[in-house]
């Protein structure tokens, strides 16, 4: 079953986070991830507001987790740590 990778982000260092974004995109694509939403308009209805919201669709939960654990994504993530506050989850799409 396909899965969604959902990130809610507050960027605190634009330059470092930009390096993360440059590296993360190819790592996500290499694992079959396709961006569905990236920093678009949103309405916060509940919970902590984060001004950047990203959703990518993967072929499966396993593919999304493999992406996160990959060396390429971990290299990208090293630039986001300390440059953002984030929550990230993977949710299986059910029909």
UniProtKB/TrEMBL annotation:
Pfam families: DUF1330 (PF07045). InterPro entries: Dimeric_a/b-barrel, DUF1330. It comes from the Bacteria. Residues 2-92 form the DUF1330 domain. This is DUF1330 domain-containing protein. It comes from Antarctobacter heliothermus.
